[in-house]
Every structure is written in C-alpha cells, then in structure tokens.
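Appendix B, Record 12. Input sequence as logged:
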Amino acid sequence: MKRLESQEDYLEKILQISQKKESVHAIDIAREMSFSKPSVSVAMNKLKEAGYILINEKGEITLTESGLQIAEKTLEKHIILTKMLMSLGVDEETAMEDACKMEHDISDKTWEAIKKHAELMNK
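Logged structural output:
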C-alpha cells in the first residue's frame, strides 16, 4: 500500500512532538500543523487503521514500530534535504518548504545517493 504524503507528514510531526513532550494528543498535532482538530482526528483514525499509531484511553498517540520507521526516515530526509538546499544558498524557510515536498517523491535510489553525498560532505 502506497502511503500518502499527508500520512508521512503526520507521522513525522508525531515523532517531532514526542521528542519535545512526554505525550502527544491530537490537539498538539492540530496546533503544530495549523489544522482543525476534526481533520486531525480523521487522519489519526486512518493512521490507526493502517497500523502506524496507537491511541490509548487518554487520547495519547504513540507510533507503532512501522510508524516510527516511516517517521524517522521522513524526518531524516527533511533534515538532510533542508541542509543541502541551504548549502546551495537557498534561504531556510524556502529550503524547509522545498525539502518537505521533495522528501515524499524522491526515489530510494536517488535518496541513497544524496545521503551518501551528504555524509561525504560532512567528513
């Protein structure tokens, strides 16, 4: 099943929030992404059905192992692509926006080449 770009964005955001806060709730995601709580709730139900997240009785959202893997990979792409674009002279805001678009569409083969190049540049 092909994941939607929005699913990857939500999983990435859940990971980012969980790195700053002890627990993640739908309202945290809505605030961070500037979405309505109802639209976030619909998305969370879809992610839960797909097996990417768990939601406990307190409404706390956690990533499953598969959800965590997707979130970490998406966040890694976002960070490396943003840094790479900034090193080319792109301003930070534009680099972040463009990296967000690129992280979803780039092939695994191209991503591995970019990642390898980034590692060589950081030595």
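The radius of gyration is 15 Å.
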